[in-house]
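pipeline stage [seq->struct] | target=Inosine/uridine-preferring nucleoside hydrolase domain-containing protein | organism=Candida viswanathii | residues=368
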Amino acid sequence: MYRLPFLFFLSLVTSKKVFIDNDGLSALQVLFPLKAGWEVVGISASFGSSSAVDAVGVGSDILQTYNLTSCIPHYLGAQQPLLRNQETFDYWQDMFGSLVWQGAFAHGYEVSYSWSNITYDDSVAGAVAMVEAVKTNRDTDPVYIWAAGMMTTVAQALSLYPGLVNDSAGLYIMGGYFDTQYAAALGTPIVNDINTDINLIQDPEAAQIVLTADWKTLVIGANVTNYLVPSQELYDRLIARAGSLDVIEDDPYFALVLSLLGSGNYSENSSEETLPFWDEVVSAFMVWPDLIESTSEFSVAVDTLFYSPFYGNLRIWGHDYAPKGIKTGNATIVNKIDNARFYDLLIDTYFEDWRQYCATGKSQVLEY
């Protein structure tokens, strides 16, 4: 059957609502949708690269920094994978090799927040909030689900309400790398980290449930998100926009910009400060689909065989060659976006004042 190009469908998108689940929220994952005129109907914070309490804490800090707590609900998502636990995570590594980045499963992981000093809505679980947001808006402006980190919260929501796939506008995810084995094996620890799909590896069963559900639209960021990274040129542009590094260092509003810049000298920054803009890239092309320059359509599944070196990895096939013995999903994988425009949007968004957004529905350009 002839399949219309994905970009054709993007031109028909009318939904402007999104529910975000993440294991370590980034500011632009929230601000990009707002800048594009979307409504963030909820955020859930889940275990994964961070502990559950740290994921909630990071999200709470972002919403407070931009004074968005009164109009963006914030919930606690999945606090553990469906099946995987510390013991099985360690055992699999003993059999097939250690992961450079182990997230909250790392034995040396240190919790940074405590439940007593963070603010979130504890009246309902994140999966329930996701379901309710989708059901509330299904007849007027269907909600997109945007998931980064483990897919556990979305899998929980599907278990509670299978109609999620029909009532939502679709699913965007961060993760799903493929053809990265050579780079991961050959590269430095940070290159290995960047080419390891920890988001799916931490809960392969949830990822398989979610990625093979019959979504109207399933878009996977995959490899393209590894190609947009910080650089000295970007640092220089951010500093020039502020007038000086001192302005960014002295104004608490720029705390999250400062965490990216560090000293302002790219070569002096740690690997954590120079990671790719993974989540930000997917957020950007979700709300500005004209950023996308190339996509491919595949059948996809996640390897859920525990005694496999590819446990938790995305597998892709051309539709005519997909296996019949396992369930697969239909996904659009983004191959290329307009890099220059992405960086322009990043800078512009950071230098807007979002602190009156909940009251006015608008941001203001910061003047220096």
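stage status: PASS
auto-comment: Residues 52-65 form the longest helix (14 residues). Residues 17-229+275-358 form a domain with the Inosine-uridine Nucleoside N-ribohydrolase; Chain A fold (CATH 3.90.245.10).
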